[in-house]
Amino acid sequence: MTHHAHKTSPNTNCLEGWHCPDCHSWGPFTVEVTTYVLLWDDGSDLSSDHGSHEYDDASVAICQACGKHATVGDFHHEEV
Ligand SMILES: [Zn+2]
């Protein structure tokens, strides 16, 4: 899968509905996530795939194109 530096069309996959409120970039965006790891008595298993990345509308997102800091809720809105 190829990643383009700057998207020029609406997102249809992981970033569906995402849109910078300032410069109207389609992304990519940096998102603050909470990471969960499986913690054992002898340490956490960071090499496994059991961890998950969680974010919600209150998490902070940053536009790569203009540096806009806003909540995910501000970035993730439907077209009007
Ligand atoms: Zn922007």
Describe the model:
The protein has 80 residues and is mostly beta strands. The protein has a domain at 29-75. It has one helix at 72-75, and strands spanning 29-31, 34-36, 39-40, 43-44, 52-54, 60-63, 69-71. A three-stranded antiparallel β-sheet has the order 1-6-7. Strands 2-5 form a two-stranded antiparallel sheet. It has a two-stranded antiparallel sheet with strand order 3-4. A hairpin with a 2-residue loop joins β3 (39-40) and β4 (43-44). The longest helix has 4 residues, at 72-75. The protein is elongated. The mean pLDDT is 84. The chain binds zinc ion. Zinc ion (ZN) binds next to loops.
Describe the secondary structure blueprint for this structure:
Elements: E1 29-31, E2 34-36, E3 39-40, E4 43-44, E5 52-54, E6 60-63, E7 69-71, H1 72-75
Antiparallel strand pairs: 1-6, 2-5, 3-4, 6-7
The structure holds zinc ion.
Q: How many distinct helices?
A: 1
Largest sheet: 3 strands, antiparallel
Based on DSSP secondary structure assignment, what is the total number of beta strands?
A: 7
| Distance from first to last alpha carbon | 30 Å
Write the H/E string, N to C: EEEEEEEH
Using only C-alpha atoms, the radius of gyration works out to 15 Å
Q: Strands of the largest sheet, in order across it? A: 1-6-7
Shape: elongated
Q: What structural category characterises the helix and strand content?
A: mainly beta
Helix content: under 10%
Quote the beta fraction. Answer: 25-35%
Q: Which molecules are bound besides the chains?
A: zinc ion
Spans of 5+ residues with little confidence (pLDDT < 50)? none
Average predicted local confidence, pLDDT: 84
